[in-house]
Amino acid sequence: MLTTPHTKIGGIYGENIAKSMTPPLYNTLAKDRKQDLVALYFEGIVPQEMNFLLRSLNFVGISVTMPHKLAIMKYLDRIDKKALAIGAVNTVKKQGNKLIGYNTDYYGVIGAFKKYNLRGKKALILGYGGAARAAAQAMKDKKANLYFWGRNKNKADVIANYFGGKVVAKKYISELDYDVLLNTTSVGMSRRQQGSRPACRQGRSASGRPKTSVCPIEAKYILSKKIVFDAIYSPVQTTLIKQARRKKCQTITGDQMFIHQAVKQVKIVTGLTVSYKYVERIVRKYIGLPATAYK
Hints:
The protein has 295 residues and is of the alpha/beta class. It has 10 helices and 12 strands. The chain has 2 domains: 133 residues, Leucine Dehydrogenase, chain A, domain 1 (Rossmann fold, 3-Layer(aba) Sandwich); 146 residues, Rossmann fold, CATH 3.40.50.720. Strands 2-1-3-5-6-4 form a 6-stranded mixed β-sheet, with helices on both faces. Strands 9-8-7-10-11-12 form a 6-stranded parallel β-sheet, with helices on both faces. It is globular.
């Protein structure tokens, strides 16, 4: 990968980002469109330091992921109206010497749910971070009724109050009889162990640590014939998704959200237009999945 003094810098900023598809996407795009751009991984940096790097170096913009989607906002010069309403930023565009924040996660969720009419439906969101906020705004805009569950009730209360939803105690989830279940937590990612969190199947390795069968919520709370969405795309086929399919649920995998948001993000950051199929091809190649895995 050759660079010049004029090479633009992009990439992803967050923690546990080794398997992020963002740099491979932008680097492939740069090669295909003959752009003098390189996308890198920025990890182990506090938001104040990232702000300094963004303003000091030749950045075009950057993707922001957990745990910095809220913390980065105080360092931006301007925030897009939708991102401001959501209360989280996952995309920073550098325009001159100004940093502008956007939320393309929102468009990722909207795109993933585009075929569903959710008016009046009960949407249960697991989590309370930046992805949960994007999902909540998307569900709200689709006129769904919002419910939240998280291990930290205080944080769940904050996001529920912000979006006008309700917090549900775990023991009442089945009674709620939700229509849509959305996982926006990191539980189930393949890139790291998730500790002693709930497992759909209680498998353990010889070391005593959970296997990759960890799930954000116990299997008994994955209700039959519902719509189940998982924001995680590594792996695409999470344990939550597998369990939901066994219960005859309609499932939406995290790669769909990623692709829809990437189409929007690429346009914001680079000004280039890419199609869903173009991004999907890169994602499929990077993850190593056949086309059937995306149906």
